[in-house]
Amino acid sequence: MTAKPAVQALLFDVFGTVVDWRSSIIAELTQFGARKGLAADWAAFTDDWRGLYQPAMEEVRSGRRAWTILDVLHRESLETLLVKYKITGLGEADKAHVNRVWHRLKPWPDVIEGLRRLKTRYIIGTLSNGNVGLLTRMAKNAGLPWDVVLGAETARAYKPLPAAYLASAAVLNLEPAQVMLVAAHNGDLAAAAAAGLRTAFVARPAEYGPQQKVDVRADRDWDVVADSFTGVAVAMGC
Amino acid sequence: MTAKPAVQALLFDVFGTVVDWRSSIIAELTQFGARKGLAADWAAFTDDWRGLYQPAMEEVRSGRRAWTILDVLHRESLETLLVKYKITGLGEADKAHVNRVWHRLKPWPDVIEGLRRLKTRYIIGTLSNGNVGLLTRMAKNAGLPWDVVLGAETARAYKPLPAAYLASAAVLNLEPAQVMLVAAHNGDLAAAAAAGLRTAFVARPAEYGPQQKVDVRADRDWDVVADSFTGVAVAMGC
Predict the structure, then answer these.
(1) Tens-place pLDDT, residues B30-47
(2) Is the Cβ pair B148, A136 closer than 8 Å?
(3) What is the ipTM of this complex?
(4) Which domains does chain B have, with CATH numbers?
């Protein structure tokens, strides 16, 4: 029996795990709407926007569509929703600004302290379906102290395809078992574990709002189970 | 006549521009040799090691050799030099440790302050022939506060091939003219300029030791010419 190698890098799912996309976007769209004199159910709009995320990526994952970054997929979904919600009169600059709300998402309250502690001992980085440009700007806006920003371009594959996990470990010159994925989503962790990575679940039971039904708790005995990044730091000896 | 777009990102050549590879390696090999009872002209050994860098990359650039990362090229060169310098008796762990000296290079004295100032206003990152794993570990060891680590894997092309510059701008979702390359090497800047990037020269007249003949000064009217990273920061309004 061979012992597993020590973890050298913790890589993080971003949307939902690091940042509270739903509250961030609702707050910004509400302000934007008030400024522009636009009325809409911005919570429903936000949930719809996120709802179009998986189907848009699935077109790429399936091979039906050529490689396309998330900024572009977000923009296409935005155009669809502006029609659905009958929001008119926005120019290109307004639409581009709204689409970049994904670059301005706010972290959950425990994130910065947890990352700072983990960074003292491990390489910390992203393992996200976001594009590198989006993730880099989000990190600058939010003060996320990543050592390395790995996005969907690292493998040109969207999670949960195995290549997304394997390429992220490889680009750091690590074996999969030397990398731990931290995520609030059991499905993401299941795919990471199947690719040989270690796993840490962080509960974000309000990611989808007060009615959230999925991923409210760990559904397997992941290597680490915590309810905050500081909890992960403690579990990892930081 | 169209005005150039504003610079959004400063990307840095690393070996020689950010870190003083020569002094760092000589110092470490001297200590290592003393500890192991090995005698050699470590300055000559270091210069030879760097001397094998361009020929090794040229095998890959030319297409004669499949894509290979710098950690591997450095290791092959190290093996060559251990034979040349008749250094025997090193085991795998010793050789791996010595090869990772490239992960432990020290920055020039002006680097950290200059980067911290530039980071307040621009995306700062690497645009290096180093692999991402090497650059990430170097940054952690040296405290380099990069927003994003872009290595040779970003384009799978070694500078000065145009793809290396163009892919680094593209992965940040920027036009080439929105990116400035900072380098101590006129040839690197010439290739960047030909690809449409902005250019900043920082003189590192002792990179190759006291006898340095090349790149002691800017040989063209680059967008910025400075003798330190703090000088670049001042020129860029930081």
Answers:
(1) 999 999 999 999 999 999
(2) yes
(3) 0.95
(4) 9-20+106-235 (3.40.50.1000), 21-103 (1.10.150.240)
